[in-house]
Backbone:
């Protein structure tokens, strides 16, 4: 899950001229060639519920002055309560790991 997520985050990181994904897809359209950079680790279908929960939480995350704020346990609890989604302690640990990876990628210079 972590490798898949990191690849997706890197492709989705905003740049001055759009995301890397947008740039690479434009190159594919112009050249007619499939680019390896767009291919990444396989999606872990057994963990799809965690990816979905993370995306929901990520879409509602708060922003600081110049960076995204981490997803808090309170936000996860509210999500669980409002959506009636069952998450185990391990599931929450995985969501927090994805959040740390997201923040690491989005806050990096590269």
Residues:
């Amino acid at each position: 899950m972590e490798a898949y997520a990191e690849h997706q985050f890197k492709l989705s990181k905003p740049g001055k001229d759009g995301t890397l994904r947008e740039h690479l897809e434009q190159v594919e359209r112009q050249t007619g060639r499939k680019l390896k950079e767009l291919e990444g680790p396989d999606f872990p279908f057994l963990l799809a519920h965690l990816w979905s929960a993370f995306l929901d939480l990520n879409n509602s995350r708060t922003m600081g002055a110049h960076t995204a704020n981490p997803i808090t346990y309170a936000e996860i609890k509210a999500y669980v309560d409002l959506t009636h989604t069952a998450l185990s302690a391990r599931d929450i640990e995985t969501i927090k790991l994805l959040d740390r990876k997201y923040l690491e990628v989005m806050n990096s210079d590269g």
Notes: Residues 2-106 form one domain.
